[in-house]
Design a protein that fits this description.
Layout: E1 2-10, H1 15-29, E2 33-40, E3 48-56, E4 70-73, H2 76-82, E5 91-95, E6 107-110, H3 112-118, H4 125-137, H5 142-152, H6 158-170, H7 176-195
Parallel strand pairs: 1-4, 4-5, 5-6
Antiparallel strand pairs: 1-3, 2-3
């Protein structure tokens, strides 16, 4: 099983962090092989940005994404640039309010930025989308992603990022039972951390 994944948007949306969290979750907590590469546009903030992850259950001999099997687009420019090179029947996930897909394209849409705004932090849009990604693709368990989040972001931001992840995952109704289980696990971990002197 080899899957090529591209997470795309513009600088400032946390695309690189999303790719890092996903790659770490797949390799350390889901028992798979994963390699991540990243690309930026000419501007550090506002320019094109993408994170590519190759994941497999076997050693990866070619670590680059050429034709994504899964495309995440958080901006119209990213969708326009990367949809043509993705596979014709790729799984496409978009921000419903930032991307207008082609009329014949079949996509999974979530208002990720709006959900992040409702949590009081637009910067958490990437974690909302990772939650949605986890639910839609079924590539790994929510618990694996949450372990990766907890070990990848600053400790003070863990609760916010976990809430954002949950918001994205719960947007996909089929995962309600799994999310309830994962929330209990994470709440337990948070309580133990907070009780330490």
């Amino acid at each position: 099983m080899r899957q090529e994944i591209r997470i795309s948007g513009f600088g400032g949306q946390g695309i690189g962090l999303a790719g890092y969290v996903l790659g770490r979750a797949l390799s350390l907590y889901a028992g798979l092989e994963a390699v991540m590469t990243q690309a930026y546009g000419p501007e550090a903030r506002g320019g094109a940005s993408s994170a590519d992850i190759v994941v497999s259950d076997e050693p990866i001999d070619y670590p680059f994404v050429e034709h994504p099997d899964i495309l995440v687009a958080l901006s119209q420019a990213a969708y326009a640039r990367f949809r043509p090179v993705a596979r014709p029947h790729a799984l496409v996930l978009i921000d419903a309010e930032l991307v207008d897909p082609g009329p014949e394209d079949s996509v999974h849409a979530i208002p990720a930025a709006r959900l992040a705004d409702e949590l009081g932090a637009r910067m958490a849009t990437n974690m909302v989308m990772l939650g949605f990604f986890t639910a839609v693709t079924g590539l790994l368990e929510p618990a694996a992603m949450k372990q990766s989040i907890e070990t990848s972001v600053k400790a003070a931001t863990v609760p916010l990022n976990i809430r954002a992840f949950d918001a994205g995952c719960e947007y996909w109704p089929a995962t309600q039972v799994d999310i309830a289980r994962c929330q209990s696990q994470v709440q337990g971990e948070t309580m133990r951390r907070e009780s330490r002197p």
